[in-house]
Amino acid sequence: MSKFTFNMPDIGEGIAEAEIVQWHKKVGDRVQEDEEFVDMMTDKATVPMESPVTGTIVEVAGEEGDMVSIGSMLVVIEVEGEIPEDVAEEAPAPAPAPKAEKVEERIEVETSDASDADDALAADPAPEPLPAPTPAPEPKAHAKVLATPAVRKRARDLGIDLAQVKPSEEGRIRHGDLDQFLSYNSGYSPAAKTRQDEEKKVIGMRRRIAENMAASKRNIPHFSYVEEMDVTDLETLRAQLNANRGDRPKLTILPLLITAICKTLPDFPMINARYDDEAGVVTRHGSVNMGMAAQTDAGLMVPVLRNAHAMNLWQLAKEISRLADAARSGTAKKEEMEGGTLTVTSLGPLGGVATTPVINRPEVAIIGPNRIIERPMYVSDGMGSERIEKRKLMNISISCDHRVVDGYDAASFIQALKKLIETPALILVD
After folding, report:
1. pTM for the full model?
2. What's the Rg (C-alpha) of the chain?
3. 10 Å Cβ neighbour count for 284?
């Protein structure tokens, strides 16, 4: 028998560590050559690790949620016979040992409580062993309650504390006593049933989202601007296009909105930009790589519609559907999840009245369409008179990085977008 140490390989440029997301094997399990045994997550993607040998796992680097440095031990596999030379040569080199001063500092911090405890033990003789604790007695009020199992179950279902119910003369609570309690306590409102606290470790995609959102709010001075738009004519156009779509995908409002945004951006290049705050450089992009926030079981993901400005409505609809499905199924490729220049986030029917979305750093803006609602409003006939009509209205929010985008620019951009949205024929004009 020989032991093979599989060190964490270099899985991307500039990546120093990866997170253990899911173990497919545990200590004692047998793993075959080329079999996936663990999923590791970086800032960019989730990468499955495959075993280069066949054997039994005898040691692992940590639990799900732990971080593993590139080059450090990920798993130790016990192999029958000698390890093939080609496999041994391919094995990643172990990570260099940390500097002495850092190790000493870490040990000092981690053992400070133990050192204090050792000093106390040295100063005082060992105490006599304490007697085993006796279980706490039940409250007397509950100990005196007498009732049949059926009465107790009914009381539980009603949320009634039997200690508050006056029993019959013989001291036993009956159904009639519960009825009398309810009649005299018509305003009695039992508290909600107590639920046990639940602790859930923040790992994987949830941890990445938490880190990215915290970094965005910590580093970016956000401001938001909201405008109401009349989408009645836009919805009429969408219905007409869908009625004649043939075998093409059904249009939602999102392809129309993205097309309108792409047509508006050339006059507002500061919106379609990325800010490298370390280098102090803002890059204003000519192409629009539209991030599309998609809710998945693992959390919020943002696949990217590359060159959205060059797509027609039907191409956008098809690509939106494909990327959303890939994100939800976890099959989205690394290149489909990065490189966005501007993001749109929509909660659909749950969109609410207005939102203040968090910017997808290092982008400098994010646009949030909200729920479409119908309500009466004054409509001008163009000849000086007005009438009341039922119209479809939607608020559109934009959050911007105030280091790059001024409030006037954001407001001007949204007002220009509003003109397109409320005159939807212009969206189809080149």
Report:
1. 0.65
2. 32
3. 15
